[in-house]
Amino acid sequence: MKKIDTSQWKNFRIGDLFYKLNLRIKKGDFDKRQDTSTEKTEEFSLPLVNAKDGNNGIMYYGRPTDFESAELCLDIVQNGAIATGNVYAQIKSVGVLWDAYLIKPFASLNGYSLLFLSGILQKVLKSVYSYDDKAVWDKVKNNYILLPINDNGQPDWAYMEQYMKIIEKQVQVSIDKLTNVIGGG
Hints:
This protein has helices at 14-17, 32-35, 111-128, 137-140, 157-182; strands at residues 10-13, 18-21, 36-37, 46-49, 58-62, 73-77, 87-90, 95-96, 100-105, 144-147. By secondary structure, the chain is an alpha+beta fold. It has a single domain (10-182), classed as Adenine-n6-DNA-methyltransferase TaqI, Chain A, domain 2 (Alpha-Beta Complex), CATH 3.90.220. The longest helix has 26 residues, at 157-182.
């Protein structure tokens, strides 16, 4: 794949594109040992973001009735020795346990655009924040990210979506080839 030409892209302040969701645990007498599970079950079916490196930031599952939740947002890990600054696109509904938070774009975006944005935000945040300097929203919102722009000088959401759809197709072709080679198809 050829390198993306970013020479015509523009810097945008993160806080001008996103706002923080202040999701809470609804259960008053919440006890992590009794009210979460490390395995997804019928009872514990809501993924919960936390200071997790990998698995899309999901470390636990909770009861949907115990947590406020959101979808089509980004999860920022604010704390964690390895995970600080990780950014995950959360397409489906998730709740927040702790050490992470969700941000939502002011624009109405789909999962493809969020996947594009998660990589860009993570590249910036991982270079700035660490275990000793947490990626809290009050600081993160003042960082800048470089994005493609449309003719009006605004973020080109359509480009981001199309780019990720192309990546998805390329990955699927690779998976299909691999499946044929190993005999699973």
